[in-house]
């Protein structure tokens, strides 16, 4: 059985806009453990589902997609953002 995570995408600290807030990401959890490659030593596995990342506009779209495909889902909402508003002059007190 394939297990997927649905994660609410947060904006980066370098982004000030709110254009892509509220988007949801579906990604598959690893089914096989990673093992070192004998030639290069890099970690990898034969599980290619971890390379698939799908974005959706709403949580309901992501959940309906997972239901249609028969996926077991772990839903991970974004933590609440707390803003500390202060004036620039407060840095010099």
From TrEMBL:
Protein name in the entry: ETC complex I subunit
Residue ranges the record marks as coiled coil: none
Keyword Membrane: yes
Keyword terms, alphabetized: Electron transport, Membrane, Respiratory chain, Transit peptide, Transport
Cellular localisation: Membrane
A single GO cellular-component term on record: membrane
Location (main, coarse): membrane
Pfam families, sorted: NDUS4
InterPro entries: NADH_UbQ_FeS_4_mit-like, NDUFS4-like_sf
GO biological process: electron transport chain
């Amino acid at each position: 059985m394939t297990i997927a995570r649905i994660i609410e995408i947060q904006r980066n600290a370098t982004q000030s806009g709110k254009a892509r807030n509220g988007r949801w990401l579906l990604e598959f959890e690893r089914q096989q453990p990673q093992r070192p490659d004998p030639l290069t030593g890099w970690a990898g596995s034969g599980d290619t589902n971890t390379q698939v990342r799908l974005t959706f506009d709403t949580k309901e779209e992501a959940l309906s997609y997972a239901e249609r495909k028969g996926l077991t889902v772990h839903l991970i909402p974004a933590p609440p953002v707390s803003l500390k508003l202060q004036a620039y002059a407060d840095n010099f007190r």
